[in-house]
Amino acid sequence: MPTEKTAITLTACGKTFADGTRALQPIDFTIAGGETVVLLGPSGCGKTTLLRIIAGLEAPDRGGRVLFNGEDVTARPIERRQVGMVFQSYALFPNMSVRQNVAYGLKVRRVPRDERSRRVEETLGMMQITELGARRIDQLSGGQRQRVALARAIAVRPRILLLDEPLTALDALLRDRLRVELDSLLRDLGITAVYVTHDQAEAMALGDRVAVMSAGRIEQVGAPRDIYHTPATDFVADFIGTMNRVPASALAAWEGNAGDAVLFRPEDAEIVSGEGAHLRGRVASSLFLGDRTRLVLESDGLQPIIVDTGHRGTIQVGEEVAVRLKPDRLIPLPATGGESNPC
């Protein structure tokens, strides 16, 4: 892999398609060399468009610039940017063996045969698929195909690795396992990586930083913990995890200073006997999840309240319960805007 870690700088990178659709508002964003940044957001928010601009598959609107280590590559096509790409659809060649797929990029770059063979075997070993080298692509499982796709992207020793929802097509158990392997791989390689997903668990597990996107804008950029515990906007608060929002006036015995509303996560409330309770509600749903029980509570005049409790007893649907909030774990009330680009 390259010893020099490549920083990415985006300046005024917006995208308007020929039909007038504005997919991306002008964005200024910097990704440090060796950093893994996850672009997280719902479908249609512009995250894949932003990735394709970094790759060179899309050109930004006039005035937008893409720089790698300060060098302007805006007009440079993908084949000259030294990037590796991994797609949700794998994009493998079905008429080639695993080894031939992994070697393809090296062959195109005219890497000598001996060096090409050495790199292919090294990369297959890194991805733990050496024994699959002679197989055809149609003989592989989904997880194996994704490992081949990763191996092909890594074998060319790219400056930057770009991943567009690479685990989405896999079943949940395999996705969890590959997520762990991918995190370990990125740490070992130390390569600059940009990862697109709509899956919050993937974003939290893989990202040094997470950029939450909505309607073609970056709403917030930060470490996963910061995104979760201190959302900057209403969108981020509602999109990341589960958030309860209760008017301060509806809380009994409340001594905090939270303005008009109190925001808290399900794990930041506890079921109590009654003394010191801030809320009371009727259990509308009780879901046992092994390490915790998730309760959905109904209370007059309020939206349903979700509480995760480690209470080992059985809490029945229809039961009245008392809830106490943890004042030191409240979420600051975020801004309602999204006009700025906080990068």
Task: Please describe the topology of this protein.
Layout: E1 8-16, E2 22-31, E3 36-40, H1 47-55, E4 65-68, E5 71-72, E6 83-87, H2 98-108, H3 113-126, H4 142-155, E7 160-164, H5 172-189, E8 192-197, H6 200-206, E9 209-214, E10 217-222, H7 224-229, H8 234-239, E11 244-247, E12 261-264, E13 269-272, E14 279-288, E15 293-298, E16 305-309, E17 320-325
Parallel strand pairs: 3-8, 3-9, 6-7, 7-8
Antiparallel strand pairs: 1-2, 1-4, 4-5, 9-10, 11-12, 13-17, 14-15, 14-17, 15-16
Helix pairs in contact: 2-3, 2-4, 3-4
Task: Describe this structure as you would to a colleague.
The chain is an alpha+beta fold and 343 residues long. The chain has 8 helices and 17 strands. The strands form 4 sheets. Strands 6-7-8-3-9-10 form a 6-stranded mixed sheet, sandwiched between helices. A 5-stranded antiparallel sheet has the order 13-17-14-15-16, with no helix packed on it. A 4-stranded antiparallel sheet has the order 2-1-4-5, covered by helices on one side. β1 (8-16) and β2 form a beta hairpin. α2 (98-108) crosses α3 (113-126) and α3 crosses α4 (142-155). The longest helix has 18 residues, at 172-189.
Largest sheet: 6 strands, mixed
Order of helices and strands: EEEHEEEHHHEHEHEEHHEEEEEEE
Number of strands: 17
Strand content: 25-35%
Which structural category do the helix and sheet elements fall into? Answer: alpha+beta
Q: Terminal Cα separation, in Å?
A: 28 Å
Low-pLDDT regions: none
Helix content: 10-25%
Give the integer mean of the pLDDT values: 90
Radius of gyration: 24 Å
The total count of helices amounts to 8
- Shape verdict: globular
Q: Strand order of the main beta sheet, please?
A: 6-7-8-3-9-10
